[in-house]
Amino acid sequence: MDWDKLKLFYITAKIGNISKAARELNVTQSALSRRISSLEEDLGTQLLNRHLRGVTLTSQGKAIFPELEKAFNKLESLNQIIQSMDNTLAGDLRIASNFGFIDTWLNYYLPDFIKKHAEIRLSVLVKEKIVDLIDEGIDLVITSFFPDSPLVEKEFLMSWNRCLYASEGYLKQFGIPKTVQDLSHHRLISFGESKSFLHEDRDWHLKIGTEPGERREPYLAINSMRAMLTAAQNDIGIISFSQESLLLKDTNLIRVLPEIQGPHIDIFMVYLKQQESLERLKIFRNFLKEQAEKTKITPGIKQP
């Protein structure tokens, strides 16, 4: 018996609408429909009547729904008792985030965490789109955007602030911009096209100081944070980069137009509410918050 499928059926029947149930469960409507259909195939009977306005229980669905309700209420009570007793750290922890955050920040701190907590087996996964915590078995997502859901908790981790940087060699050759309008006469490096970051304005420096609706043409477009940094270090042009990124500490890039700051991006740790008391997840969240506090200001960035 697949209890995951039964739970999806139970919640959908309780809500009476597949699309609303999918939003609450933080899964796609098509994925939820497939799981319920699969359950019906397993049982050899139809449990839900599908209508334009929602779903209703068939006679077979009505027969099992009350028993499922009792079972899941008991399981929830048991789960709360078990979680309150679970003070062990040993076990797996699956973490997801986009490549840029893993590469420019998280990657620097993972070795320290592993040395301190060798009993926790970490899996770090690159996910460029919204994660389905349940279907993908993810314990924690680190992201700047996640849809609201009554099943998940969004805990603030840190803010990233985008600023402008260039190399000393570039500024000697092309001069130091004094105003945002001066950027129109400089070589600007942009992040380029990316469907993964539609909610983030990574190329704000192409528009600031221009007329409404106008946008500067980038000298180079490349959708890799590390590659952008390398280009700037090689005197190619001016980049927009998060000042909290730890990649910056290994460079001699100079802050350009220091009085100007780009978009402010809040980053959150997202996890299922039922996982909140899981000890190893709490340890990892607290570890990340400690590191975030240390990197509010990135050292070693020169001013022109």
Automatic annotation (TrEMBL):
GO biological process, one term: DNA-templated transcription
GO MF term set: DNA-binding transcription factor activity; sequence-specific DNA binding
PROSITE patterns found in the cross-reference section: HTH_LYSR
Keyword terms, alphabetized: DNA-binding, Transcription, Transcription regulation
Record bears the keyword 4Fe-4S: no
InterPro entries: LysR-type_TF_proteobact-type (IPR058163), LysR_HTH_N (IPR000847), LysR_subst-bd (IPR005119), WH-like_DNA-bd_sf (IPR036388), WH_DNA-bd_sf (IPR036390)
Ranges for domain HTH lysR-type: 1-58
Keyword Methyltransferase tagged: no
Homology family: Belongs to the LysR transcriptional regulatory family.
Name this protein carries in UniProt: HTH lysR-type domain-containing protein
